[in-house]
Design goal:
- The structure is a homodimer.
- Chain A is built from 13 helices and 14 strands.
- Chain A is α/β, with parallel strands linked by helices.
- The longest helix of chain A has 23 residues.
- Chain A starts with a strand and ends with a helix.
- The interface between A and B is large, with 72 and 72 residues.
Chain lengths: 378, 378
């Protein structure tokens, strides 16, 4: 996949927190630092992650940027690079080099080109993922668009979340990075299998061609832009969970009343990562003890006697006690089972100890997940 | 299960760190505090965990202790209680009460009684688990024995690890607690599905009937006793992982060269908890990038260029670089696949940053795990 902007753009990125970052992540960080946040192109291959490949891997990632620059003009450091696929294998540079030459000769605009780009970065994603938002900044229409991939693995270890966003908004690199830093949080509050990839990357390019007054500080325009970018990221994040490996259902965890945002996130993450919760969702089983006890081992401050839990709108645990009437009543028990068997179910956990909240998205754990990750061996 | 000692014993316990502890855990902590570490009996039911049941649940757990005392004599606070099974349902006290009366009338000694006890605390464990050690303290023969259950679930949420240990050693409650605190660490370094139960409990009773000189301080005898207790716990812990839900293989993670013990544990836990590593072990796939990147997101201090990984004795990642020769060589690649398909495989990860180490045990993730936890709904 080769994404080329008409002009050098303000550029920003957020990257994996994994301490074994892939070579492309190292190179992108370096390029963004060297240019002060300017880029014109993003190149991405799928099939090989160029991770755990040492210095030779870094040289390959840099070579990809140089190859793109040699074909489309401009500086190699204004090219950003991503790779997704198996870990620990050298990139097949012959193939990569031919691929970049072909892409450079076939650059195109429009719906079909966008769809092709979204498809090109897929690994075992079942569907391509893209989103679009339109806003006005000072009366000027501005577009935001993005494509992403994530949560598929055919050759094992394709566990990478990549999102490439673009906009014609005029905005400085610093303000763009600030907006992205906030908006990309949506990607941090999803989990398919809790294994943080060494390649996770969200990049955004802003060309300025919309002609709005350049956003240089956090004001009304920045807030409008940030909100649209956050909305775009949330849309893409949802698409990733929905297409999670082997997933048949999405569940949403709303944590309310936590003592701090950190605690709320700890609880949300423990619940969406719990294999037992994920299996209960898969089986459509309103087995709520798995949710309250996941909060219990999350490390966050909780007191059982302050905690309440709703499945959909039905309260099953009220300040430390099971709502026995609901659970033993035939009609409400049936309703709970129905709620649990829907395509999407929401758990609202009120910690009752403060005002902080957080919302997380997870998917169920199915035999298909095991099949994808155990049976198709390298 | 009712375990009755001939005399009041020194008693010690370690309990779940889950902040939603079950009612029996609360009651046991209170009893050990009130008696200064003296107990004569342990009673345990399976099928209902008496967890997330609020104050009524605590009253039920206390009632179980009173019932035992009324049948066998002695004080209720010298009885310890455990429950394992579904969360959030009131205990069926009629049934429990009849059960305790029956057990009290059928108390027995010997091999068959021990085997019956190990079987009585099972939920979906496939095999009963017990271990035995004999040592000498100042020339006096001393016995240590234990039974445990763990990692089965038929009715969902039977996720409880329970171990009951007994010895005829003479040792003060304080020294017994110190030995147990250390030895029970073996149970903390295993993982079937990372969901810390609200009921996890390890209890030990020491009757003193062996007649050794009572251990009152940390000296040679304490060290001998502690080592035997640790060995006993490690044996039981291994049996739990081997009988993990749906498990077909055990894997051992040796973390070496970490900056601190804390870091070594963080890395070990991240690896044994990773669904991707567990699936690779299930598929017999030497997909080592999943192991190195799990270390990468563990939160521990690591540098890729210092890290090395061996599968069995075969080095696949050497100070930041894949050992391409090994991985591409037909013979060694075959050997790796063979190692991965054995009943037990060891991963040795050298972090290369210090001298701390840690050893963890995990089991694979199979379709059967999903079936056990998704299909048999409540």
């Amino acid at each position: 996949m080769l994404l080329l902007a008409d002009v050098p753009c303000s550029a920003a990125g957020v990257f994996t927190t994994n301490r074994m970052p892939s070579a492309p992540v190292l190179v992108d960080r370096r390029h963004l630092r060297a240019t002060g946040g300017v880029a014109r192109a993003i190149v991405c291959n799928s099939g090989n992650a160029n991770a755990s490949t040492g210095k030779p891997g870094e040289r390959d990632a840099q070579a990809m940027c140089r190859l793109v620059a040699s074909h489309v003009g401009g500086e190699a450091r204004q090219v950003l690079v991503s790779s997704t696929g198996i870990i620990g294998r050298p990139l097949p540079m012959d193939k990569i080099s031919r691929g970049i030459a072909t892409l450079a000769s076939k650059l195109a605009r429009g719906r079909q080109a966008d769809a092709d780009a979204a498809r090109a970065i897929m690994t075992t994603d079942l569907v391509p993922k893209s989103a679009h938002r339109a806003i006005r900044l000072g009366g000027v229409p501005v577009q935001l668009a993005g494509i992403c991939k994530g949560s598929g693995m055919i050759a094992p270890n394709m566990a990478t979340m990549l999102a490439f966003l673009s906009t014609d908004a005029a905005i400085t690199p610093a303000m763009l990075q600030a907006a992205l830093g906030d908006a990309a949080g949506a990607f941090n509050r999803i989990s398919v299998d809790q294994h943080t990839s060494p390649s996770d990357t969200v990049l955004v390019l802003a060309s300025g061609l919309a002609g709005n007054r350049t956003i240089r500080a956090k004001g009304k325009d920045w807030e409008t832009f940030r909100a649209a970018l956050a909305d775009l990221c949330a849309d893409l994040a949802y698409q990733i969970v929905k297409d999670g490996e082997g997933a048949t259902r999405v569940f949403r965890v709303r944590v309310l009343g936590a003592r701090s945002r950190d605690d709320a996130d700890r609880i949300g993450r423990a619940i969406v990562d719990s294999p037992l919760v994920k299996c209960a969702v898969h089986g459509g089983d309103p087995n709520w003890g798995r949710i309250t006890t996941a909060a219990g081992y999350s490390g966050a401050a909780i007191k059982p006697e302050c905690m309440s839990l709703r499945i959909g709108e039905v309260c099953v645990f009220d300040r430390g006690r099971p709502v026995t009437a609901t659970l033993e009543n035939r009609r409400t028990a049936k309703k709970l089972h129905r709620l649990m068997r829907a395509t999407e179910v929401t758990f609202t956990l009120d910690i009752g100890m403060g005002r902080a909240s957080s919302e997380w998205l997870g998917c169920d754990l199915s035999r298909q997940y095991v099949a994808i990750n155990a049976d198709y061996t390298t």
